[in-house]
Amino acid sequence: MSVRRNSLANVMGVGYSSVVALLVIPRYLTQLEAEAFGLIGFFVLAQGWLALLDMGFSQVVTRAAAIHGHDASPQFRRLLGSIEILFASLAMVIALVGYGVAPLLAASWLQVTSLDPDAVVRSLEFMAVAIGLRLWVALYKSCLQGLELQVRLNVLNVAAATLRYPCSLLLLCITDMDYEEFFLYQAGVVLIELLVAMVLVYAVLPVAQRWRLAFSSVELRKVLPFALSVAYVSAVSALVVQVDRMVFSGVLPLAEFGYLTTVTLIATGIVQLGGPVVQALIPRLTALHAREGDDAFRRMYLDGSEALAILIAPIAVTIAFFGMPLLTLWTGDAEAARWGAPPLFWYALGSLSMTYATGPYLLQYVRGDLRLHTWFLSAVLLLQTPVLVLLAIYHGVLLVAIAWCLFRVVDLLLWGA
User: Fold this and answer.
1) Which of these, 122, 74, 66, lies nearest to 365 by C-alpha position?
2) How far is CA 378 from CA 310, 357, 394, in A?
3) Interatomic CA distance for residues 333 and 259, integer angstroms
4) Could you please report the per-residue DSSP string of 323-338?
5) How does pLDDT run across 126-175, given as a tens digit for each residue?
6) Cβ–Cβ contacts within 10 Å for residue 395, how many?
7) Phi, psi of 16 (to 5 degrees)
8) 221: helix, coil or strand?
9) Quick count: other Cβ atoms within 10 Å of Cβ 171?
10) Which is it for the CA torsion 267, 231, 130, 146, positive or negative?
11) Is the Cα dihedral 289, 294, 295, 298 positive or negative?
């Protein structure tokens, strides 16, 4: 199980998924009206926030699979089965709650002016189903990552991304699919992804353990402290990174929120480009820390950090300084490019700084102790949130982007030191 092979598989899988998302999502503007594209932006935002209901358990599975999964431990199977039941329940709860709150969101939060209100409500309901299923899929993908079966994982990611993005764009171009049917299609893709991911995980389990789904509160209690630490860090991180976008979803006209979605997708893509290296490092560093001496761990960490730095900087700087032509090419919409280029400059540089600040978190994660990271993020959240919320409400996107970037640079300087 080579780290280089897994890194290459992750580069190809995550790289392909990120590239097709970045290429295709802005092109939806050519097939859907601006407000319908804004609904896609809200879908992307909602996925990020509702993923927090994971509560850290998918990362618990990654860590447990890296340490115990290779030995086909009954203890690991009991833990996996318990979390499977938990995630299946969460998926159903998200879908049911989504159906309940969709009319309220359509009427009171989203700034809709031209779309059919009933179609918007149904679109939000389909979003809820898709998001609940994606939460469940994340469990099996985390298990494959921890087992270092990242070639299989990335084959699945490539196939799912192809169905999710290029195929949906093709359907929009050659059929009469509208935005409501688009979200129904997205929910169907996630259902297929879930079934395939489940089969891939079960295929590596011993035959006698495959269908032993039993809820074990004992196993969950063992991992609960670490899971809650990860959940808290994830929630605070989401607030740190996306609190401005959450406010903008209710303040900006839906069409402008769609333009902002393109900008933030590109900025998020910069961070995701570091994902292949990080995903390959996490299980190997975890295993090295658990089984071997500090020298091998230190070498692996330093080599991975160097690779991350070399990979991200040229791309982020290019995006920052050539935002206008890149957005024009991506969206085919001069208005979207004119609107988005100034904030993209700052969001891109801020994303670069955020990527470089990954190292200290990675060191704490593989040791299973996130206390320092938790305290640091909490302090950042308390300082940043009121500033960004007030700027978002009263001063618009550009000043928020500048402030967000400056906060990320300060994070890197303080945390890296």
Assistant:
1) 66
2) 30, 16, 25
3) 10
4) HHHHHHHHHS-HHHHH
5) 999 998 898 888 888 888 877 777 778 888 888 998 999 899 999 988 88
6) 11
7) -65, -45
8) helix
9) 15
10) positive
11) positive
